[in-house]
Design a protein that fits this description.
Layout: E1 10-13, E2 17-24, H1 57-75, H2 81-90, E3 96-101, E4 104-106, E5 112-114, E6 125-130, H3 139-143, H4 145-159, E7 169-171, H5 172-175, H6 206-213, H7 216-224, H8 240-246, H9 250-258, H10 277-284, H11 287-293, H12 299-303, E8 310-311, H13 313-329, H14 331-335, E9 340-348, E10 354-360, H15 366-379, E11 382-383, E12 385-386, E13 392-393, E14 395-405
Parallel strand pairs: 3-6
Antiparallel strand pairs: 1-2, 2-14, 3-4, 5-7, 8-11, 9-10, 9-14, 12-13
Helix pairs in contact: 2-4, 6-7, 6-8, 8-9, 8-10, 10-11, 13-15
Length: 407
């Protein structure tokens, strides 16, 4: 689930007074759930009221039992990748084997590339091992151990006709170069999820596969005959409507909307979640679709799509260093003031540059305030604000700083 919001904290102490850059007060939008802090293997208890396949408690229990069993077999070097892959397929468990890294989930170490904006979430994979930065599998690793098991396991899953996500995850040697998918580009991301060239699909693969292909007739059959839920998210958290939008299938999206598909997505999603249909359209800068779905959501939901400016880490670190040097130069004056928090309020233009700065409240040293604002204008850079359609707009932002003598 996607979340927007930032916090920053650091403390710098002078010889006779304290000063700190306390936080960045930008935007903190509540998500529909808290991420559980348990195993990366299986997740879902917090989705119990969301109509999500990850919320089925009996299924979660079975997945945990299966993962525990696999861990024991791997530890004893007794796991057979082919047997385990078919066991998973028979159980409808389509999670790929993956490694965890400092950057997130990695399936490429095990021979698979997945096209998912923002990367895979923990619940979408069976995490087998931690991959240290810069680690390169040896020939022995490829033949045995977690790497060898993971590659064979994934190869079996992807080759089986029951695997429903061949549009999303493919063997590396068939995937090609991964496109850039930075969501903050002005032009948008043309294909935020999945491969442009579709794989083989069957009706059994469900509404998501039909939506990716734009098959209005299949969508109608799956809804009317098979009673499939138009708002049920799949393994990747996307609903059929989100997939139709991601693949530029507007007639399919219209069919789903007529069937009461939600522009917000699943019951537990919000408009700001990166998997929600509205957010997918926004990332693609598909303004016509956004306008078409706007009457189907509340004004509050639509307004939540706006993004406030986001500070750039490197510039804020530089500013904090300059701030500490400035307070040392004003040490005598600041030490006579009682420690207090002060807001630095900025106007930020569409290029992310500060055009004005105001201290609220001002300190007892106007010269210090002026220099501090000058440093912020010169150093701090922001990712520009964007409106609900993803267009850059001028906006306000602020930092909160604290300085003065110790209480």
């Amino acid at each position: 689930m996607m979340r927007f919001g930032h916090s920053f904290g650091t403390v710098v102490r002078g010889r006779r007074f304290a000063a700190s850059l306390l936080c960045v007060a930008l935007v903190s939008l509540a998500a529909c759930k808290e991420e559980p802090a348990g195993s990366v293997m299986v997740e879902g208890e917090s989705l119990a009221a969301c109509g999500d396949q990850r919320a089925d408690q009996a299924r979660l229990k079975a997945l945990r039992k299966s993962d525990d069993r696999l861990r024991r077999l791997l530890a004893a070097s007794e796991a057979n990748a082919i047997t385990e892959a078919y066991r998973a397929l028979d159980a409808g468990d389509f999670r790929l084997a993956a490694a965890t890294t400092a950057e997130g989930i990695n399936t490429e170490a095990y021979g698979v590339q997945c096209r998912v904006l923002g990367g895979l979430q923990p619940w979408t994979v069976r995490a087998l091992a931690f991959l240290p930065p810069g680690a390169v599998p040896t020939s022995n690793d490829l033949a045995s151990g977690a790497t060898g098991f993971g590659r064979r396991y994934n190869a079996v899953l992807l080759a089986d006709k029951r695997y429903p996500y061949a549009d999303v995850c493919r063997p590396i040697d068939k995937a090609g170069a991964k496109p850039e998918t930075a969501p903050d580009t002005d032009a948008g991301v043309d294909q935020p999820y999945g491969f442009v060239q579709l794989g083989t699909a069957r009706m059994a693969h469900g509404l998501g596969a039909a939506a990716r292909r734009g098959s209005v007739s299949d969508i109608g059959t799956l809804i009317s005959r098979d009673k499939q839920d138009v708002n049920a998210p799949d393994l990747f958290g996307l609903t059929p409507l989100a997939w139709a939008i991601a693949y530029h299938r507007w007639p399919a999206a219209q069919a789903l909307l007529r069937a009461k598909a939600s522009p917000i997505g699943a019951a537990c999603q919000s408009a700001i979640d990166r998997e929600s249909p509205l957010q997918v359209a926004r990332v693609m800068r598909w303004n016509g679709v956004i306008r078409a779905m706007r009457p189907l959501v509340t004004e509050e939901q639509f307004a939540s799509l706006r993004q406030k400016p986001r500070w750039q880490d490197a510039s804020l670190n530089e500013f904090n260093h300059a701030f500490s040097e400035l307070k040392e130069r004003y040490e005598d004056e600041l030490s006579r003031q009682r420690f207090a928090k002060h807001e630095m309020n900025f106007d930020v233009d569409t290029d992310g540059a500060i055009t004005s700065c105001r201290m609220d409240p001002g300190s007892e040293s106007p010269a210090f305030d002026k220099e501090l604002c000058g440093l912020a204008v010169e150093i701090v850079r922001w990712t520009p604000a964007r409106d609900a359609f993803g267009t850059r707009v001028p906006e306000t932002a602020k930092l909160v700083v604290g300085f003065g003598g110790a209480n």
